[in-house]
Amino acid sequence: MVSAANKPTGTLKKSKLLPSWLLKLIGITSLATAVISFAVYWFKKYPPRRKISANDDGSEATGSSSSSSSSSSSHNAAENTADKWSNKLLNGLKSTVRKNRKRMTISLKNTVLWNPSPDVDTPIYAFREHSIQLLTRLSYLYDIYVLVHVNSKEEQSNIEALLSNASVFSDLLDHRKVIYCSEEEGKIHIIRHIEPSIHIEGGWEMDDGEEIVKKLKPFVHKIVWLMTKRRRDSFRPENIKQDDRSILGANVELSDSLINTSIAREVTQ
């Protein structure tokens, strides 16, 4: 007699249907929706009593029209009160979320902006691939400050025009937190004053940001240093020079692209 062998049942591999950053937002949104819905229900069911003013004479309203008008006014007043409380609760939750976000500073050049021109006096700026989408997602998790090293007022005007056409800068990021500076020391001073948890550095046309990373390393919890692939290869164990060893540390991450960093993986997984 031949018996049919049962096929082994495989285990279904779980996969994330949604990225972790989106799940965090959904959780916050669900909490806000639940609180607001309860507030609306409560104030509609139990509207606050109207205080007696000096103009009230204590007499009852007469006639069906007066009664109907009074009832309608009370109902509208209750709805308005509920809406006001809903808005207060929602604004309070938004404020709490904003306050709880960690600060992040980003040196814009060579991280988000790219300049293919070798001439410092005639730059041609463009956004790096996927940088705007990534910055948009990061803005939901971090309180972002953008620093731009500029060489002239004309260059600043050109960069301002470029940023104004990007939705993340016009809609999500606070324009007051886009800071322009012309000296490295000034940028370091600003970053230390902001006290970010994370700083992303890419240098500028004349420097790759090495000195900035060295000076910020003792004060910033995590530094992401973006550089060219050639410079990145110089930090490999077999290639690293003795002078470069002091730059490395547990809080310094090296990469040749923002999209390949651990910060990007937080919002893309």
Automatic annotation (TrEMBL):
The chain crosses the membrane at residues 21-43. Residues 64-74 have a biased composition (Low complexity). InterPro entries: PEX22. Residues 53-80 are annotated as: Disordered. The keyword Transmembrane applies. Keywords: Membrane, Transmembrane, Transmembrane helix. It comes from the Eukaryota. PANTHER family: PEROXISOME BIOGENESIS PROTEIN 22. This is Peroxisome assembly protein 22.
